[in-house]
Design brief:
With about 475 residues, the protein is of the alpha/beta class. It has 3 domains: about 1-285, Rossmann fold; about 310-410, Four Helix Bundle (Hemerythrin (Met), subunit A) (Up-down Bundle); about 415-465, no CATH class. It has 15 helices and 15 strands. It has helices spanning about 35-55, 70-80, 85-100, 115-130, 160-165, 205-215, 230-245, 275-280, 285-290, 305-325, 340-350, 355-375, 385-400, 415-435, 440-450, and strands at about 1-5, 10-15, 20-25, 60-65, 135, 140, 180-185, 200, 220-225, 250-255, 260, 265, 300, 455-460, 460-465. Strands 4-3-9-10 form a 4-stranded parallel sheet, with helices on both faces. Helix 2 (about 70-80) crosses helix 3 (about 85-100), helix 10 (about 305-325) packs antiparallel against helix 13 (about 385-400) and helix 12 (about 355-375) runs antiparallel to helix 13 (about 385-400). It is elongated and about 90 Å long. About 40% of the residues are buried.
């Protein structure tokens, strides 16, 4: 298995610290609002990666932090006239509601910053004792010049950064790149006791403390959005490795932006859709398939057209799943030759190549097309064939991608509702042709073909088949 490592800027063979076990930390939400569909990309693609590790037989210990103390939370509490704790609790509940609807499996651990103050303070104190941090009247800063490897993740040069005009001026810091580990308490803000007086932690130190607390000083994988490479993840490395003198993370993975008209989707730009809003229009399976059709690291344009196209594509998989369930009730029949092993191999080749979900999805569509061909060419097929077909879909479409749910598929006895609906569309098309409404007739034919139903006209009428 090959993974692109942001730290080394190349694909590397994946080797876990402990055989068959993986430790994985992902930066979760700052809980001050409903998360947008761009955030959902990180949550869903991480879920797919974790599921694929399970497919390969790994036992994954997965932690996703919840940032429940932050400037944005304080701002929201002032706007709504409630406490920061109330804001955090409200949107933590919303976060869990939304990831459940998106079919995202829960992490093993959801550490909260406010529940780890002792760990955070101890880590800051250790950094101060080692000479990497300094206190200025209750504000504690990390001295980046003390850490020789600063910039190794992002590829940024410290001297170039220091000369940049965008660095905020702060007279308390030894140099402009130094970042806050502990912030002195301000009136009306939440605070905790510490060796430097009352205050609260900086954002970066929270993740270092919680990751090391729950997963150890060195972990296999740390993941998050591309926007976190610098400064957040760069600062995590500096803090953690300065404290332990060990490599903090072996493989860094970063997810590409979800764009609107080629512009990054973000709350600050106001060009975003919340996941719960999109879920009102499209199923979790459609959203997941839409995201999986692009490699996790690349940019992806979010559009209504893309979701509708994905919805049509998903219907092809769902229609086959219905046929597979029906076929399980068959009595003995023919046992067609079908190379399931090569399709499994193709799927694993795709996913082993840096979790190339777009190629993995393509294999599933190849499978759908091939199985439909077998069904079309044979009158009566043995249930064993359909059992193997169901298992393939369960392992890939269900187990890895989460884009299919056999439990939600109902098979009616006798004439299926699906067939009746197709016949209704055929009648509408016949009526349209009688009225010489060729545009409508062609539209019905083309729309049915988009969802895997092909019409065939003859002198005796119109028939259909699944493709």
């Amino acid at each position: 298995m090959q993974i692109y490592n942001t730290l080394t800027k190349r694909k590397e063979e994946f080797k876990s610290i402990e055989p068959s076990k993986i430790t994985m930390y992902v930066c979760g939400p700052t809980v001050y609002d409903y998360f947008h569909i761009g955030n959902a990309r990180t949550f869903i693609m991480t879920d797919v990666i974790r599921r694929y590790f399970g497919y390969k037989g790994y036992d994954v210990t997965y932690a996703m932090n919840l940032t429940d103390v932050d400037d944005k939370i304080i701002k929201k509490s002032n706007e709504e006239g409630i406490t920061p704790d109330d804001v955090a609790d409200k949107f933590i509940d919303a976060f869990f509601e939304d990831i459940e609807k998106l079919k995202v499996k829960k992490a093993n651990i959801y550490p909260k910053a406010t529940k780890h103050m002792g760990d955070i303070i101890k880590l800051i104190k250790d950094l101060e004792d080692k000479g990497f941090a300094y206190n200025v009247d209750g504000n504690v800063f990390y001295n980046v010049k003390k850490f020789e490897g600063y910039g190794k993740l992002s590829g940024k040069n410290v001297d170039d950064l220091l000369s940049g005009a965008r660095i905020e001026i702060n007279n308390e810091k030894d140099n402009p790149l130094d970042f806050a580990l502990w912030k002195k308490a301000k009136d009306g803000e939440p605070s905790w006791d510490s060796p430097w007086g009352k205050g609260r932690p900086g954002w970066h130190i929270e993740c270092s403390a919680m990751s090391m607390k729950h997963l150890g000083e060195t972990i296999d994988i740390h993941a998050g959005g591309n926007d976190l490479v610098f400064p957040h993840h760069e600062n995590e490395i500096a803090q953690s490795e300065a404290c332990t003198s060990k490599q903090f993370v072996n493989y860094w993975m970063h997810f590409g932006f979800l764009n609107i008209k080629d512009e990054k989707m973000s709350k600050s730009l106001g060009n975003f859709f919340t996941a719960r809003d999109i879920l009102k229009q499209y199923s979790a399976e459609v959203i997941r398939l839409f995201l999986c059709q692009t490699h996790y690291a690349g940019p992806l344009n979010f559009s209504e057209e893309g979701l509708k196209s994905t919805e049509n594509g998903l219907k092809k998989i769902t229609l086959l799943a219905e046929e597979v369930l029906k076929g399980l009730d068959n009595s003995e029949g023919v046992k067609p030759e079908f190379d399931f092993d090569s399709l499994y191999a193709s799927f694993e080749t795709a996913m082993d190549d840096d979790f190339n979900s777009s190629r993995g999805v393509a294999v599933i569509f190849d499978f759908v097309k091939a199985v439909n061909k077998v069904i079309a060419e044979n009158e009566n097929i043995s249930p064993e064939f359909f059992e193997k077909a169901k298992l393939f879909l369960e392992k890939t479409a269900v187990g890895v991608f989460g884009i299919l749910d056999f439990n939600s598929i109902s098979i009616s006895s006798g004439g299926s509702l699906e067939n009746e609906l197709v016949e209704l569309f055929i009648k509408m098309r016949t009526d349209a042709k009688t009225e010489k409404n060729w545009a409508l007739a062609d539209k019905i034919r083309d729309e049915l073909k988009e969802i895997g139903i092909e019409l065939k006209d003859s002198k005796t009428g119109t028939t259909f088949k699944k493709i």
